[in-house]
Specification:
With about 140 residues, the protein is an alpha+beta fold. It contains five helices and nine strands, in the order βαβββαβααββββα.
Length: about 140
Amino acid sequence: MTSLGTTLRATEIKAFVPARDFALSQRFYADLGFEKRSEGGGVAYFQVDGCAFLLQDFHVPALADNLVMHLLVPSVDAWYAHVQTQDLAGRYGVRVTPLVVQPWGITEFVVIDPAGVCWHIGQNTPGFVPQGRLPGAAEEADLP
C-alpha cells in the first residue's frame, strides 16, 4: 500500500501492441478470439473476458520482435483447438507452436502475430507444486 492509502486505485492495465498492417492485425485478433470494442485514431481496443490490449497502427520491428504477451486462460486445450480450427498459421502466415508443459507450472503454446509479437497462451498446469517459493508466498497466493 502507498503512503496515500487507498486513494490511488486502478481499473486495468493494458499494453500497446504494434501492428505492421493494422487492418490485417485487427482481423487476426478477431479470429484469435478477441472482440474489438472500439477503434479510433490508429488504436483499436481488443478484449476477451477481463483481458484487453490496445492494438496500435504503429510498427517498429525492434519493439514488435521483443514484445511478449502472456494470456492466462482456463482451458489452454480449448484455445489451442480454436487456433487450429481457425487455421491462423495458414491464413495469416503466423507461427503457432505445439502445446508444451513448462517446468514453471504453465501449459502453453505460442503464437507469433503478423507483426512479430510473441503471445504465450496458457493455463496453470493442474497438479503443479511450486518449488523454491519464499516463505509465506504459497499462503498469499492460496497455493498448497
